[in-house]
Amino acid sequence: MGKYIGKRLLWMIFIVVGTAFVIFTILYFTPGDPAVVIAGGNAKAEDVENLRRMMGLDQSYFVQLKEFLYHTFFKFDLGTSWVYGKPVLDELLIRLPRTLIIGLTAMALNLTIGLLMGIFAATHEGKWSDSLTMGIAMIFISCPDFWVALMMILLFSSKLGWLPSYGIGGPQYYIMPILCSALGGIAVNARQTRASILGVFREDYITTARAKGQKERRVVFGHMLPNALMPIITSIGNGFARVVAGSAVIESVFSIPGVGLYLLTAINSRDYPVVRACVLFFAIFTAVAMLIVDLVYAFVDPRIRAQYSHARKGTKHEK
Description:
The protein has 319 residues and is mainly alpha-helical. The protein is built from 15 helices and no strands. It is 78% helix and 0% strand.
C-alpha cells in the first residue's frame, strides 16, 4: 500500500511541476508586452523599458524560467503582483477560504443530492419518477453556470429581495454561489450513480439478497452501492476539482473576491505572477483531489491492495 501511495505522490509532483512549466511558457510567448499594458497607453518608451527591467522581462526565457521554478519550488515564493505590488501568496491566503467555502459546500451538495437522485432513479427504472428525475438532471447539466447565476440574481435579489446579489458578508451571501456551483455536479453524479446502480441491479448476489428477505434499503445501500462505487468515485473526484477550478465564473458574476476572480482580474491586466500562482493553485488542488480518489480506490477495491501486496511478497521471495 505504501508503494501505491508513493507512486501517486510522485505523479502528483510531476503534474504540478509540469503545469508550472507549461503556464510559464504560454505566458512568456503570449503576444503583447505586459509592461506596456501596466504602464498605460500614454507612458513614454523610457518608462516602459524601466518597468520591463524592474519586472525582469528583459531577461531571456531560460533565465526567467529558472528564476520562476527556483523561487516557486525551493523558496515557496510566488512573487509580487505587478499591478497591486503585494505578495501573491498573501493575497491567495486571504482569498482562498472564500473559494473553498463555495467549492467544498457545493461538493457536499453534489455528493449527497446526486447520489440520492441517482439511487432513486435506478430503483424506479422505467417509471415516471425515473424520467422526471433524469429530466431534472438533464436541465441542471444543460444550463451554463453564468446563466443560472444571472437568473438567480433576477429572481431572488431583484424580484423577491431575499438574498444579496453580490459581495461578501454573512452566510446569505454564499447561498446563490453555492447553488450555482452545485447544480451541474448534482446532475452528473445523479446520472453516473443511476448508470452504476443499474449495472449491478440484476446481478446474482442482488437476487440472492432479495430472496433471503432483506429489506430493499439494505439491498441498495449494503450490496448495490458498494459494488457500483468505482465509476461514482471517479465522477465525484472530477467534479470536486471542476467545482473549485470553475469558481472564476461564479465569483465573477457574484463579485466574490476569491481565487477565481483574482485570476480573471490578473489575466485582463497581464499580471503574470498572479496568473501563474492561481493556475498552480488549481493544479495542486486538482492533483490532490485525484490523489484522494486514487486512495479511495485502493480502500474500496481490494484488488488494488492485493496487487501491491503480491508485488511486495514476490520481491521478498526473490531475495
